Amino acid sequence: MDKAIIIKNLTKKYKLYSKSSERVLDIILPKSYGKDFYALNNVDFEANKGDVVGFVGINGSGKSTLSNIIAGIIPETFGKVQINGKSALIAVASGLKGDLSGRDNIELKCLMLGFSKKEIKTMEDDIIEFAELEEFIDQPVKSYSSGMKSRLGFAISVNINPDILVIDEALSVGDKSFAEKCLNKMNEFKAQGKTMIFVSHSLGQMKEFCDQILWLEFGQVKEYGPVEEVLPQYKAFLKEYKDMSKKERKAYRKKAISGS
To answer: What residues make up the domain containing 27?
Structure first.
């Protein structure tokens, strides 16, 4: 099958500084300051065209970092990232400018994606209607609730008709009826054979919607396979992890990162 996403030996490294002066010193002096933090470390991942892949993992596992790299929002530090097609990220407030109105944000985001003003004008009404923001579309986005921002971001992304759709916790805010509306739209895309990445804490949504599950643990791939195989393993792990003490979790993290 044709590959939509090919990722090899992907690493994303950040520097953590205990104080702001360390950041400046790290730039101007040869001595290294700060501590290296690997949000992702040596990740291999491939998805075929038409795959619907769920990303799972406890907080800090690298799900959003990987999603942002696939969507082209942030660059990788090392490794190969090949995205075959146009990708779009749906996340709360992703790419939205707070001082601009909802309407201006639609135009700005679509212009950045290469659409002409004429094309945007044609799409605008459908985006506003899908987002259910008719009364608020000319208000500044900074006045929107998190649910309203998510609705606007989702409406823009699905109406630009991307080849690869990356949904990062976008259904975790807002009302249940809009979440169902979004899931219906995602099922339309699934039927069209589009590739989707789905990040959610709702394992029920994962089970219903995804074909494959990528389980990330502290920036590394723990498991990757069919939803019926990986999701039960992850649910069992969550139960065990929840019962761990703070000391036990720290030891588990150290062991998982070292690979021992």
So the answer is: 1-86+166-175+187-260
